[in-house]
Amino acid sequence: MSSLYIVIPAYNESENIEKTIDQWYPVVERHNDEGNSRLVIINDGSKDNTYELLQKCAATRPLLVPPVSYTHLTLPTIA
User: Fold this and answer.
1) Radius of gyration (Cα) for the chain, nearest Å?
2) Is residue 11 over pLDDT 60?
């Protein structure tokens, strides 16, 4: 029983995201004996084209979860 989920946050990572996927995807493949391993990248409201690059990469990599996108949140400061 070997499964692995790698979850990576991404914010304005268009220059790095494809390299990051290329580095981590083989790790997920090696731990996918039962078909349960996945690479998950959470796009945290990027202003660049990170989301579009994630979509492109997910189209050819079945273990890469289609991109999830959230709005970048900031927590209020307490004085």
Assistant:
1) 14
2) yes
* pLDDT at position 24: 97
DSSP state letters, 15-59:
TTHHHHHHHHHHHHHHT-TTS--EEEEEEES-SSSHHHHHHHHHH
Encoded tokens for 33 = 């004996």
SS3 79: coil
**Measuring CA to CA, which residue among 48, 39, 25, 47 is closest to residue 67?**
39
28-46 pLDDT, tens digit per residue, is 999 998 899 999 999 888 9
CA 7 to chain centre: 6
Joined tokens for residue 5: 């989920």
Distances from the Cα of 72 to the Cα of 46, 55, 58, angstroms? 8, 19, 22
**Which pair of structure tokens corresponds to residue 73?**
């949140």
